[in-house]
């Protein structure tokens, strides 16, 4: 916390000290008064450098400790969060007509999603604020990540999920020992009930759209991308968007690096939603205020009809000079197949929505063949096997004999 100056409201600019219990602006209220963590970039520049970072052996997000709002001495979960691989799959690049395409596979985090980056910060802040219980609402990934980090830290967790949450994610929650409440309603209902319960029992609030510190965990994916590319900034970073916290975090990470002089330019951001739930993409493309949307998509992790961080998300895309797009569930399933078959990366529907949007933007000429592009896969496909099977179909079934196998293979054109 030594490099943190305080908190500032994105709406009215009012400043607050970085003290326990201060999450949103008292003037603007919870919905509009999202706070942002402010850093002393001069102090960071004096205390660390790219060269000193290269000597840090820790591969996790804590290698970037000067850019994080936590105390160095605070206990941390033993889980390795961050350090996910950045691939350059030639087959996927050829399929999309892109010569310099990278895939950041954040499904390799401990609970198999990018949300681990935020949740590990949440449990550390909970310890710093002497909270004994943590809680959140989630469509799935934030829930499982919080449950996992809380279990590793030895803190009880209460998790609120909408009824549609996939069984794979529910299984994770229960295995991690969380108290799971399945709310028979949509994400907005789930968020509202979790907020009421958090206030009633005084639990530490991990909801990313309320807690300003969680974006700081998510931004580490941008710090890793820059370091893995030897501080050469890509032209585009493409990723899925739900409530807007992740894309806001990516932008914050690159801005942090720019402010300390570690990179000399900023990338454009492309935020991708599903046409079944695209309040932010529609608002951006139609240049109007966002409006609530139905939650009608198989990409459950980004099915957020009432996004809680719309201002941060839209501001990030606009400031970057980037764009947004909405793709159909069919395009998302096709992206699951394409990513797996050409890159060997298994992403869940929400995790590959960015790749589906990248295909659309590349075909339209918005993203050009010569551009350097990073597509972030935000979650692993094992979280939603039902939709993975829907994407690729059933296996070939055959009796246990070569005589039965030969005609089956011939019929499929496999041999």
Automatic annotation (TrEMBL):
Please give the InterPro entries that the UniProt record associates with this protein: Ser/Thr_Dehydratase, Thr_synthase-like, Thr_Synthase_bac/arc, TrpB-like_PALP, TrpB-like_PALP_sf
This protein's superkingdom?
Answer: Bacteria
Under which main EC class is this enzyme filed?
Answer: lyase
Which cofactors are named for this entry?
Answer: pyridoxal 5'-phosphate
Q: Which SUPFAM superfamilies match?
A: Tryptophan synthase beta subunit-like PLP-dependent enzymes (SSF53686)
Q: E.C. number, please?
A: 4.2.3.1
Cross-referenced PANTHER family: L-THREONINE DEHYDRATASE CATABOLIC TDCB (PTHR48078:SF6), THREONINE DEHYDRATASE, MITOCHONDRIAL-RELATED (PTHR48078)
Role, per record: Catalyzes the gamma-elimination of phosphate from L-phosphohomoserine and the beta-addition of water to produce L-threonine.
What is stated as this protein's family in its record? Belongs to the threonine synthase family.
Name used for this protein in its record: Threonine synthase
Source species? Acididesulfobacillus acetoxydans
């Amino acid at each position: 916390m030594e490099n943190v100056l305080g908190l500032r409201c994105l709406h009215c600019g009012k400043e607050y000290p970085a003290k326990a219990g201060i999450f949103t602006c008292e003037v603007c209220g919870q919905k509009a008064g999202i706070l942002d963590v402010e850093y002393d970039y001069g102090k960071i520049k004096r205390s660390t450098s790219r060269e000193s970072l290269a000597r840090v052996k820790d591969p996790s997000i804590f290698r970037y400790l000067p850019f994080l709002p936590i105390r160095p001495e605070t206990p941390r979960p033993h889980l390795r969060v961050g350090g996910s691989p950045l691939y350059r799959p030639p087959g996927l690049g050829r399929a999309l007509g892109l010569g310099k395409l990278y895939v950041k596979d954040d499904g390799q985090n401990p609970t198999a999603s990018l949300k681990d980056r935020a949740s590990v910060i949440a449990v550390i802040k909970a310890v710093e604020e002497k909270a004994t219980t943590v809680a959140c609402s989630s469509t799935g990934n934030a829930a499982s990540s919080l449950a996992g980090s809380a279990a590793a830290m030895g803190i009880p967790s209460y998790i609120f999920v909408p009824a549609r949450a996939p069984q794979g994610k529910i299984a994770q929650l229960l295995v991690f020992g969380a108290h799971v409440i399945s709310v028979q309603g949509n994400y907005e209902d789930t968020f509202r009930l979790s907020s009421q319960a958090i206030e009633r029992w005084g639990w530490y609030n991990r909801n990313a759209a309320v807690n300003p510190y969680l974006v700081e965990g998510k931004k580490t994916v941008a710090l890793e991308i820059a370091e893995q590319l030897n501080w050469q900034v890509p032209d585009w970073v493409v990723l899925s968007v739900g409530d807007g916290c992740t894309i806001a975090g990516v932008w914050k990470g690159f801005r942090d690096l720019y402010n300390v002089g570690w990179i000399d330019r900023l990338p454009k951001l492309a935020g991708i939603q599903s046409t079944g739930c695209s309040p932010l993409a529609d608002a951006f493309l139609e240049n109007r205020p966002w409006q609530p949307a139905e939650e009608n998509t198989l990409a459950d992790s980004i099915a957020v009809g009432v996004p809680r961080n719309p201002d941060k998300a839209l501001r990030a895309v606009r400031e970057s000079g980037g764009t947004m797009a909405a793709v159909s569930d069919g395009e998302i399933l096709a992206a699951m197949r394409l990513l797996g078959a050409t890159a060997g990366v298994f992403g869940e529907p929400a995790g590959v929505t960015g790749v589906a949007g990248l295909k659309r933007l590349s075909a339209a000429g918005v993203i050009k063949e010569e551009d350097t592009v990073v597509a972030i896969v935000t979650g692993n496909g094992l979280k939603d096997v039902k939709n993975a099977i829907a994407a690729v179909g059933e296996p070939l079934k055959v009796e246990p004999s070569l005589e039965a196998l030969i005609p089956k293979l011939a019929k499929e054109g496999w041999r």
